[in-house]
TrEMBL record:
Signal peptide range in chain numbering: 1-29
Organism of this sequence: Rosistilla carotiformis
TPR repeats: 30-63, 173-206
Gene3D superfamilies named in the record: Tetratricopeptide repeat domain
Matches recorded under SUPFAM superfamilies: TPR-like (SSF48452)
Pfam family for this entry, one: TPR_11
UniProt xrefs under InterPro entries: ARM_TT21_C, CellSynth/LPSAsmb/PSIAsmb, TPR-like_helical_dom_sf, TPR_rpt
Protein name per UniProt: Photosystem I assembly protein Ycf3
Keywords attached to this entry: Repeat, Signal, TPR repeat
Every Tetratricopeptide repeat protein 21A/21B C-terminal ARM domain range: 83-214
Amino acid sequence: MHSLRKKQPKSPVLAAALLVLSLSGCQFAASGQNAQGVRLYDQGQYSAALQQFQQAIASDPKNPDSYYNLAATTHRLGKERNDRALMDQAESLYNQCLDLQPAHVDCHRGLAVLLVETDRPDRAFALLRNWATSQPQLADARIELARMYQEFGEGETAQKFLEDAIHQDGNNARAWLALGQIRESAGDYQQALQDYQRSYDLNSMQPQVAERIAAMNRQIVSGVGGVTASGTRLAQQSAADVSKGRY
């Protein structure tokens, strides 16, 4: 995600979980419609994707991923068209998703982004704080709250929430990755490298983290600090898709 403070964030990516086919009946139909909608979304055919996600909800009204996908696509269209009515509709859909699945990470993130984009950052922070308070056992809630604080320039507070997340779940690759980013930005390169390595050990399907580890090792050997172009790429890409294990 690009900076919530200075740039327009990327629209939330579509939930990967819905690509897993359900067992049978209405759930099976909804899964296929969601999968087709994801393909259309990836091709930039947002209106066509919207129709698929609407059909998925009609097939299985209890599937939170369908509501998330419809919300994310409506959100994208609302931003592109500068249409407040669509943004309001997306907000309602995000909330419906959370009614069905209160711990839905992508819906929390998408709704928080929308609230910031519509000049309600206080409500975005309140949303994530309430989530962290109501489900204290979830590391993801603290990771998302840390993301918000980091985006608004409060790195020390973000680090505190990430340390809390790791205390809850020491095997959370996203939390270690996020902590590494914050420590790197603060100039603590040796500790950041250890955090990145820990994240990669927990989830080796993170090529951008492997690149960052290699780049930092070269920097440390040469005695050069700072964030390279690959570091910027890591920060942007890793924030984009939690469903793929990225911060």
